Write a sequence for this structure.
């Protein structure tokens, strides 16, 4: 009976850890900052698959069993999906490792205070490792099968991958794709939500387009024109260039930064990275964003249920050129409400949003708070 009670206590501990409000946002932030190939995926995608895996692992521990066929079917689907998105299997496994490390680190810290003996924690970890090994095996098999079929059937994707590797391989890939070596090349990155956009981009020619890492990536001999921008249907696309083929790996990362920056500020159309350089630099540093939010965690806690409204007001005020009337209209509140919320933010954080550097820090912090709230709501 004592051993059974100890195991129930261990299961309760794991369920509490997995259920902590900040665990999933922390894991997603860790994945996006450490696994570059996964960081390009939408936050909701990463959060959804992570949540499902955590729930499945918790159920397996509670029942002292390995993975069920239903759980393995989900894992197969995840492996196939990531392969179609062009995410390498090493990156998929790396993202899972980030989640595992977060769970067991918290479990070890909490075990002693919960009265969980070391051998019970070790038994749970060994059982989890057995479950995880079966999951990884099925994941790798499904990913390899899907990846083989994708690479065999998609010549453009294979050539695009070589082009984005840089060096002499990129020069040869450009020649194979019919892209001229001189004059510079442009890279555009967009969310693959519209087949009409893809066709419109192909009409720009000469062009090389494929779906890579969950994104629509195109390489052009000239910057896409207004027709392609109209096809975006209200959404943005990031653009960078011109550059030589050997430099396109870096240019692609800049185009992705432009897309992320455009999305964070509601811009539409084709956005060149030079037009959002500061925002792009901010969006690329998930590690600094995590430190920034950690530094101001007490202020966030003090605001409590009002934190989201305060963050939205500060962000709207800054994005409206510090015009309280415009910000108030955007938020459907009175101008004095905006003023009060901005003052409240400044008082609790010590950040002066009227200062040029303070304004950037305030915008970044509020953006991070709002993003974390959105992740929790999902």
């Amino acid at each position: 009976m004592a051993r059974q009670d100890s195991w129930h206590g261990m299961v309760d501990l794991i369920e509490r850890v997995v259920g902590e409000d900040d665990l999933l946002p922390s894991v997603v932030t860790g994945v996006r900052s450490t696994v570059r190939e996964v960081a390009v995926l939408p936050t909701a995608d990463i959060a959804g698959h992570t949540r499902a895996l955590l729930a499945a692992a918790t159920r397996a521990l509670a029942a002292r069993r390995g993975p069920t066929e239903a759980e393995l079917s989900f894992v197969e689907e995840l492996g196939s999906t990531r392969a179609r998105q062009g995410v390498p299997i090493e990156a998929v496994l790396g993202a899972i490792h980030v989640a595992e490390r977060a769970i067991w680190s918290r479990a070890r810290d909490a075990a002693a205070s919960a009265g969980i003996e070391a051998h019970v924690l070790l038994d749970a970890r060994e059982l989890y490792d057995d479950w995880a090994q079966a999951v990884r095996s099925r994941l790798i098999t499904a990913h390899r099968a899907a990846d083989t079929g994708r690479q065999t059937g998609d010549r453009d994707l294979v050539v695009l991958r070589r082009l984005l590797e840089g060096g002499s391989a990129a020069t040869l890939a450009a020649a194979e794709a019919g892209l001229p070596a001189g004059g510079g090349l442009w890279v555009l990155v967009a969310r693959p939500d519209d087949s009409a956009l893809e066709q419109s981009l192909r009409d720009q020619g000469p062009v090389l387009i494929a779906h890579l890492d969950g994104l629509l990536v195109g390489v052009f001999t000239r910057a896409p024109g207004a027709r392609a921008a109209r096809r975006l249907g209200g959404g943005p696309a990031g653009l960078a260039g011109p550059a030589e083929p050997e430099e396109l790996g870096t240019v692609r990362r800049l185009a992705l930064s432009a897309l992320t920056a455009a999305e964070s500020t509601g811009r539409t159309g084709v956005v060149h990275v030079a037009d959002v350089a500061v925002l792009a630099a901010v969006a690329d540093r998930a590690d600094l964003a995590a430190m920034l939010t950690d530094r101001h965690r007490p202020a966030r806690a003090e605001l409590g249920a009002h934190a989201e409204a305060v963050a939205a007001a500060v962000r709207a005020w800054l994005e409206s050129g510090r015009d309280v009337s415009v910000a108030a209209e955007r938020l459907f509140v009175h101008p004095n409400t905006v003023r009060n919320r901005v003052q409240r933010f400044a008082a609790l954080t010590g950040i002066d949003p009227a200062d040029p550097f303070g304004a950037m820090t305030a915008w970044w912090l509020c953006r991070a708070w709002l993003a974390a709230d959105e992740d929790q709501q999902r």
